[in-house]
Write a structure and sequence with these properties.
This protein is mainly β. The chain has 1 helix and 11 strands. The strands form 2 sheets. Strands 2, 4, 5, 6, 9, 10 and 11 form a 7-stranded mixed sheet that branches. It has a 4-stranded antiparallel sheet with strand order 1-3-8-7, with no helix packed on it.
């Protein structure tokens, strides 16, 4: 399993920005789907964004397209989620996750979240109106 540690959460007003980071260690395979998920109060966990490490293709939930950007720094083994134009509906606990996978798996990262075997502890994001 990959070890993952998130940071960068906090409280921000609507319209503001935050950048989440996820430091990773323990990659042992060549192909991974790494992504961000969130759980809002009273709601099920949902996929936010993912990136396939082999070709850096990115995938986003419709609710965050155009506002959030997922990226990786390979030298630092760190995953990022830049979140702009935040709104109160973005409030929740954000988790990064990793799974050795195929490209097809990563396309369906949100539906396949139960198959991710490496998870961070989460970082809280609170957006006030």
């Amino acid at each position: 399993q990959v070890q993952l540690v998130e940071s960068g959460g906090g409280s921000v007003q609507a319209g503001g920005s935050l950048r989440l980071s996820c430091a990773a260690s323990g990659y042992t395979y060549s192909h991974y789907c790494v992504g961000w998920f969130r759980r809002a109060p009273g709601k099920e966990r949902e996929g936010v964004a993912a990136i396939y490490t082999t070709n850096s293709t990115t995938f986003y939930a419709d609710s965050v397209k155009g506002r959030f950007t997922i990226s990786r720094d390979n030298a630092k083994n760190t995953l990022y989620l830049q979140m702009n134009s935040l709104n109160p509906e973005d409030t929740g606990m954000y988790y990064c996750a990793a799974q050795a996978s195929t490209y097809g798996f990563c396309i369906s990262f949100s539906r396949r979240q139960a198959d991710f075997d490496s998870w961070g502890q989460g970082t809280q994001v609170t957006v006030s109106s």
